[in-house]
Amino acid sequence: MVLLGTALLCVGVGLLVAEAHVPSSGALGLAGVVALVAGSAIAVQGTRGGAVLIVAVAAIVALAALALVAVIARATLAAARPRALTGAEGLVGHVGVVRSAPAPLGQVFIDGALWRVKPCLPDELEVGDAVVVERVQGLLLSVRRAEEWELES
């Protein structure tokens, strides 16, 4: 019985790990909690633990596993939240063209407007270079030189 309980514990941990990596809307996480609780109860019973010990261990495992599933669900919801599409925050990731070289501030033409920029990396940016917006701080953008794959889209 202890081997069966251990196997269920391993399956439960595997399901919780899968929940963190697969979009299952919590189904794998809840199945993992059930497997962990059942595995811990069977393992304790196999070692001839009393009913009180079985219930206590199962309750502790259930609370810990449910807390882990809640943390995973919260992180998943935060990651699925759409990023800003408008305003200054919506500029992050956009590609622009340097109009005046930063020394220490320059200007970049992005989405039909000129923005004041500063480089976020120690790049030597020149007029005509393609740059990508990394951060927005008020009306000042932090930019870096664009990679080739960013220019293709």
Strand tally: 5
Low-confidence stretches: none
- Measured as a percent range, the helix fraction is 40-55%
- What pattern of helices and strands is seen along the backbone? HHHEEEEEH
Largest sheet: 5 strands, mixed, barrel
Summarize the structure.
With 153 residues, the chain is of the alpha+beta class. It is 48% helix and 21% strand. The protein is rod-shaped, with a radius of gyration of 26 Å.
What would your notes on this structure say?
The structure is a single chain. The chain is built from four helices and five strands. It is of the alpha+beta class. Strands 1-2-3-5-4 form a five-stranded mixed β-barrel. Helix 1 runs antiparallel to helix 2 and helix 2 runs antiparallel to helix 3 (51-80). It is rod-shaped and about 80 Å long. The termini are far apart.
Question: Tags for this entry?
Answer:
5 strands; alpha+beta; five-stranded mixed β-barrel; 153 residues; single chain; rod-shaped
Structural topology:
Blueprint: H1 2-21, H2 27-46, H3 51-80, E1 95-100, E2 106-110, E3 113-119, E4 130-137, E5 140-145, H4 148-151
Parallel strand pairs: 3-5
Antiparallel strand pairs: 1-2, 1-4, 2-3, 4-5
Helix pairs in contact: 1-2, 2-3
